[in-house]
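Researcher: We plan to redesign the surface later, but first we want a full-length starting point. Tokens attached.
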């Protein structure tokens, strides 16, 4: 009975969250530079002596889809990073509706379009950390965005990137202002083993118990290894859920690259509750 009451309460809260929409402006296709890599002074001099352009002066143009709540802000913002199959219109519409409905500026980053990539599930990822940091820099310059309150949300491969960005780094690889960084990270079904034992920003990880692509056990072992050190991390495992449990287009399930993907309405609804509460708490002024 107590479990049923908790379930009903959670669904009531979810309904309230979904109904409490803020009017949003139309989606806008925008372009920005992927973050530049830092190049040491010696390397820069050697490159110039050869008559070439230093790598730090080169940047790839990336596309994204910007959505904003009505009003002048400044608002908190969220950069969304897609999975290895690319950024579908359904996904970007769903994320934009949620995030702008909660009063955030939303930027869905498309790492594949300008590179002519269809998917990167069985090959090396493009420089997606640089893309995400380019989105961070772009958002920070918008008048409607509070640069101190920008989060990164990623799904699958995008979740891996979110954890990598939240990890500790011995050197600064990217040429962005030292004071500029994501405030928090939300990672849907990532490979937790890619992260360092300590994170530099708070994070929440949302993953299915039966995920056979990015196993929940990997995240449990990582949580044990980090033993509460570094920035706080919350791991939420949804019983009976598989990879991509929040994607309604998967219906009764589908096999992709040898892994089982399946929509789970219950897990999806609860993950929305978790993400909403986490962002509301962490991005509050």
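Model: Full-length starting sequence:
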């Amino acid at each position: 009975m107590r479990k049923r009451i908790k379930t009903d309460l959670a669904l009531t809260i979810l309904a309230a969250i979904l109904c409490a929409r803020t009017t949003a402006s139309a989606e806008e296709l925008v372009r920005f530079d992927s973050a530049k890599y830092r190049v040491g002074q010696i390397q820069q001099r050697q490159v110039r002596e050869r008559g070439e352009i230093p790598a730090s002066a080169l940047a790839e143009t990336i596309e994204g889809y910007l959505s904003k709540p009505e009003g002048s802000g400044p608002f908190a913002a969220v950069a969304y990073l897609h999975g290895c199959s690319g950024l579908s219109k359904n996904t970007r519409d769903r994320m934009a509706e949620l995030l702008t409905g909660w009063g955030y500026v939303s930027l869905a980053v498309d790492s594949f379009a300008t590179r002519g990539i269809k998917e990167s599930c069985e090959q090396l990822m493009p420089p997606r950390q640089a893309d995400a940091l380019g989105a961070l820099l772009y958002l920070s310059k918008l008048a409607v965005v509070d640069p101190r309150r920008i989060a990164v949300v990623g799904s699958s491969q995008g979740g891996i990137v979110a954890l990598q960005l939240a990890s500790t780094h011995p050197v600064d690889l990217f040429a962005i202002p030292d004071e500029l960084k994501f405030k928090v990270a939300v990672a849907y079904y990532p490979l937790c083993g890619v992260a360092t034992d300590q994170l530099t920003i708070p994070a929440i990880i949302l993953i299915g118990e039966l995920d056979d692509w990015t196993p929940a056990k990997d995240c449990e072992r990582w949580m044990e290894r980090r033993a509460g050190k570094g920035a706080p991390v919350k791991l939420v495992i949804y019983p009976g859920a598989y990879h991509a449990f929040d994607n309604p287009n998967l219906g009764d399930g589908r096999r992709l690259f040898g892994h089982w993907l399946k929509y789970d309405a219950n897990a999806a609804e609860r993950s929305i509750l978790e993400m909403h509460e986490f962002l509301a708490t962490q991005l509050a002024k």
